[in-house]
Amino acid sequence: MKSLQLSQAYLGALLLSLAGVNGQGCSNTCPPINYGTPVPALCEGDMADTFANTEKVYDVCHGSGQTRSFSIDSLKGKIAVFANFYTGCNAGRRESGVFAHVAQRYFETHGEDKIVFIQSVKGGGTCAQWASIFQSDAVSLYPGSGIVPREMPLSVNDVNYEIRDDLFTTPFGHPSYAILDHTGMVRHKFIGPCCGYESFYSCTADIAKSLDQQLTDYLEPLLTELETSHIDEPTNKDPNVFNPNPPVDDPQLGDGDQTVCVSGTIGDWSEWSPCSVQCGSTPGIQFRTRSVQANDCTRAVPVETRSCQATFPCNDPSTACVAETGASYTVETVVTGLDSPRDVDFHPTPGLHLRDYSEGRQFYPDEGQEAWVVNGGNHSVSIVASLGTERQTTISRRDRGYYHYMINATALSFNKVANSGRIPDRDSFNYWAICNDNPNNYMGTKEANYFMGPTLYDSRPRNRNTVNRLGQECRPEEPCYFLHADMLHESPSCVGITHDPEVDTAYGTVYWAFDATGNRETGQLVRFDFQQPHGPGSMDHSVAAIRRYVEVELERGDPGVHAGMVVHPTRREVFVAVPGANKIIVVGADSGDFARTAREEYPIYSSALPSFEYSVWECVDQRVFAEGIDTPSGMALSDDGSRLFVAERGSGNILVFEIESASLLYTIETGLTTIGGMAFPPATVGATSMLYFVDEQTNSLYRINPDEECSTPVQSRVNPSFTVAVNSATANIDGFSLSRDYECSVDPIVPDASFFDQVHDDTGYADDNPDVQSNMTGMDAGAALLADRTDCGFDSELNFDALLLGGYFCHRCLPEEYLNCDTGGICSNVQWEGYTCDNEFFVTKNSTGDIELQNANGSALEPSLTQLLFDVTYRVNVLGNISLCANIKDKVECASKGPLLFTVEDGEKTTVSFTVNGENDSAFELDVALRRSDNTSSGVQKFGLTGMMILSMIALKLTF
After folding, report:
1. Which long-range contacts (CB under 8 A, 24 or more apart) does 244-251 make?
2. Is 250's pLDDT higher than 50?
3. What InterPro entries does UniProt report for this protein, alphabetically (predicted)?
């Protein structure tokens, strides 16, 4: 795995050369460059197993060669040529015909025992459709050659982008190719000749066919090496992975543009299974099955279901309970003083984010759990550290651009998969995503453009994931803000989100979201795969996969109501609370198929590049889990995954359901009426986790505390005979499901290349104002022209998204309701970096050991030229082990290694004296202006004449 040492001059030239081509560029540089930062990747000279998962088994979905499944390890002993294409990609479509021609030619000359060609198919369509494309393109590019691709290339339905992320780590361009020799070493890795062309036809046949000679020049020497190597057959081959037997007939291996049907037989229906519930009043389900030949054209249904009822009541004693409540319980208040809390989740690694000292406060990372509460009222996250211990404390944080990245947030969810097996550099363990219930109206100051969606953050404090006001890594003595790692914009008015604990994708950044806007008529379920997060400081959203499940219709309910969502890790089911329909639904996380691109029906998206998948999926497995619930909101799974806890917001109760039978087992009464999100902390050995939940009206976090252990558990409603029947059907019927519509079929449409030229009319990252940003650097100097814009009206032409993209966190047009300066402060934007506040100072020791007063950007100030204003709260960040005290009239305020906050009230003495380390002599003095500042209706302080003179003197010392 290579790393690069690049000079600033070279890097700048590189970025300029890439700008305007596409978001990933067409440079063969490896490792690839993402906004000036080399990204770990597999490069020439590397052994594949140094970065890629070489044991991962891939199924071949098209190509009639001998290999029907393979791992990279199983290919040792032969040359392997991998291609990275996107279906619908104009450049990729042109080159795919060349690649197919070369692959078939080498197959006919050397056979599959010496060389294989494999292509990663992703972004939409089926293998048959993609095969039809490369077959027809190959024939048209090489008329009269007699070579028609059938055996080669082998296609893999790379739906989770695993081959791409292992071999072609973005932003390595596309189309691209990697050639592994017989030992598993990457000998060649390069970008195809059509990269950067705007359309299928703009890359001419001659340009595309230059790939033929390039591949030939690379492969011939490697084949000679193979002939002379006389290597032994690899000892690590799995006979179940590399199958030398010819495959059976498969309609997918036909011409690809025809539907091939094979007549078959349909068996008789079995008897109805036992009812799924053995007792109680909750209805159960029965099923029956029949054998249906796999390729039968009639699409006969192999499974039928019907409702059933248990014939016996459950014998639960009056003392029956669940482990989480005990025989009796108390609803305990954990934290108060929150601001419209909507959801709560637990940090998987307590103390990782705050460490032992932050913002001038001591924390104890080794004591207690850490709860994160999202506040919809002030657009922040409250972190409750050392939960339940004597050192419990709460600190609040938000994003500097909260009005876009963290506005009216309703849900958050952590990636808690600690042992995913992913490469550490790519694992997103400890990341979290937040859901924004807002159509992107900038706190009501701008007409909505619906350019909104979930925001992804990395909770690790390194790599500028937390920053100060200037965007620099936050020092322990100063205020800290979240800096987002990625954001996608396909889910405006999002009211629920949950992380998917799957382990197939390379980065683990898959989240499911409740998009309340949906198709503007009804909400929809959306799956977000951030894939490779762009990281702090970048705006490249060209690498992601977003899938809309349009058949999963969702109703949001009243504004501000959180919609709980959980993913069952072993059943692979997504549970969704639907507050507006008083029900809970279950969706198969791995079900459904690509139907078509979403770009035509849903024109709001994050990138126009083909590497950004925005698609509609259909025929997903779904069923109603429970209904008749009075406004279901928060949900949480028990530690063992057997029980689902549901907040019934309308009644103030928490309902406990059994997962397997969907039966109501128990009801917890809270006495509250606005319950939102719920969560269990990580389980501890030998103990049952307590359930935590938030309540919006009381602005509090609560927990259910068992007073005594539960000795008489509620009886399970599951009928054991039904479980036996399900296990038998699962073993005998491929893809057996009780929630699938077996009559549903998808006829996928390969995306037309024109969809990738579409823009979404003056919103977000596709703004047509050239002063916003360039494609690659995101820091176009022309964005400075936005500083003087005053057309801040609700329906003005100024796009507020352009301000953020242009490097503005402080601007007259941006919302002022929650200015991140302390009371009375005025912010000054520092483009691309952040902003400063005129009421923030730093005190530190300079290189000579003397005490130095600094302004907000770290420049030294002369105290005699610096004055304070009445009624303004000043923040003096005391750096290092200095004890600083401010003497104001009869009051003394002190701080060490942290913030000193004070306000000079009207009528007090006109000089504030500062002392250091308890010494009597003052270190410096600051005069107070004789005129009071005026308050404006917006809460921003306007200075009088004296104040303006002070600002002028300070401005002379600001050097950005």
Report:
1. 244/66, 245/66, 246/66, 247/64, 247/68, 251/128, 251/295
2. no
3. TSP1_rpt (IPR000884), TSP1_rpt_sf (IPR036383), WD40/YVTN_repeat-like_dom_sf (IPR015943)
Residues pairing with 159 in the sheet: none
- Residue 483 tokens read as 């800096």
Beta-carbon contacts of 200 under 8 Å, excluding residues fewer than 6 positions away, are 90, 91, 93, 94, 753
What are the boundaries of each domain within the chain? 8-253, 328-716, 827-955
DSSP conformational letter for 679:
E
- Residue 121 to residues 118, 182, 252, 932: CA-CA distances in angstroms? 10, 24, 14, 68
Considering the domain 827-955, what is its CATH architecture?
Sandwich (2.60)
- Residue count (the chain): 960
Q: Is the separation of the CB atoms in 571 and 520 below 8 Å?
A: no
Task: Kindly report the CATH class assigned to 8-253.
Answer: alpha beta
What is the residue whose two structure tokens read 């499974």?
A: 303
Q: How many Å apart are CA 635 and CA 252, to the nearest integer?
A: 42
The rounded distance, in Å, linking the Cα atoms of 462 and 473 is 8
Q: Which residues contact 514 (CB under 8 A, 6 or more apart)?
A: 411, 435, 494, 495, 496, 497, 523, 525, 554, 556, 563, 565, 576
141 and 28 Cβ atoms separated by less than 8 Å: no
Contact 651, 628 (CB under 8 A): no
Alpha-carbon span 656 to 637, nearest angstrom? 10
Residue 436: its H or E element: strand 431-436
Query: What distance in Å separates the CA atoms of residue 456 and residue 100, rounded to the nearest whole number?
Result: 39
| Residue 625 to residue 639: CA distance in whole angstroms | 20
Q: Half-sphere exposure of 827 toward its Cβ, with a 13 Å CA cutoff?
A: 24
**pLDDT tops 60 at residue 487:** yes
Longest CA–CA separation in the chain, Å: 99
Q: 666: number of CA atoms within 13 Å, CB side? A: 27
The dihedrals phi and psi of 904, each to the nearest 5 degrees, come to: -95, 115
Beta pairing partners, 658: 643, 663
Answer yes or no: are the C-beta atoms of 697 and 673 closer than 8 Å: yes
Q: Are the C-beta atoms of residues 917 and 895 closer than 8 Å to each other?
A: no
CA–CA distance, 146 with 917 (Å, rounded to integer) = 89
Q: CATH number of the domain at 328-716, please?
A: 2.120.10.30
Which residue shows structure tokens 């893999």? 156
Helix (H, G, I), strand (E, B) or coil at 898: strand
Could you count the other beta carbons within 10 Å of the beta carbon of residue 925? Answer: 13
DSSP E strand stretches across 85-217: 115-121, 154-157, 176-180, 186-191
- CB count within 10 Å of CB 551 equals 18
The continuous run of DSSP H or E covering 11 comes out as: helix 8-18
3-state class (DSSP) for residue 727:
helix
**CB neighbour class for 757 (10 Å; exposed up to 12, middle 13-18, buried from 19):** exposed
* Alpha-carbon span 524 to 810, nearest angstrom: 35
The span from the CA of 597 to the CA of 591, in Å, is 18
Going by C-alpha positions, the residue among 133, 156, 123 that lies closest to residue 617 is 123
Distances (CA, A) of 324 to 682, 688, 690, 727: 14, 6, 6, 29
Model confidence over 765-801: pLDDT tens digits?
Answer: 544 443 443 333 445 566 788 888 999 999 998 889 8
Cα-based torsion angle of the residue sequence 54, 60, 66, 69 in order, rounded to the nearest 10 degrees: 40
Q: What share of the chain is helix, strand, coil (3-state, %, to 5)?
A: 15, 30, 55
Whole-model pTM: value is 0.90
pLDDT tens, position by position, 841-898: 999 998 888 899 999 988 999 988 888 998 899 999 999 988 999 988 778 889 999 9
For 310-351, give the secondary structure using H, E and C: CCCCCCCCCCCECCCCCCEEEEEEEECCCCCEEEEEECCCCC
